[in-house]
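Hi Y.,

Following your request, here is the sequence exactly as I used it, all 155 residues.
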Amino acid sequence: MMKILMIFIGLIIAIVLLQSVADQVFNTTTTLTSTNETITTPANGTTASIAGRTLIGTATVTNGSTPVASTNVTVATALVSGAETITVTVNNVSFANLALNFSYDFEPDGFLQSSSSRAIIVLVTLFGALAALIFVVALVFSMLKDAGFVGGRKK
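Below is the corresponding structure, written out as C-alpha cells. Let me know if you'd prefer a different format.
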C-alpha cells in the first residue's frame, strides 16, 4: 500500500515539475512568427516599441494589401530599458498614425541564443521524464516481486 502511495506522489510531483519545465523549454528554444499584426504607427520621426521580442531577418509592412517601403517605415531591434525590443520608426509623414500590418519572425524574451544551450535544456527535460518513468517502473517491479509475480515465490 505504501508503494502505491509513493508512485502517486512521485508521479504528481514529476508531472507538475516536467510540465512547467517543458513550457519554459518551448519559450526558450522556439522562434515565433507574427503574421499581419496590426500596429498603429507613431508620429513622423518617432518610434513605437514591441517589447520582449528580437526581430529575425526583415519585417514585411503592408497597408492593407499594398507593401510599404522600408524608407517610409523602419522596423528594427533595439535595446530599450535593458530588454530587446522591436522598434517601429516612421520616416514619412504620410505613414504617421496609420494602422499598418506587420509580419515578422522573432525570438521571444528569454530565447537562448546558443544552440548548445537549446539542445541541453531539451535533454534535461527528456532525462527528467526518463527518471520519472524509471521511478515508476522500479516501484511497480518491486511491488510485483513482493507479491510473488516476478523473481520466484515469496517465502
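The CA atoms of residues 9 and 22 lie 20 Å apart.

Thanks again,
Q.
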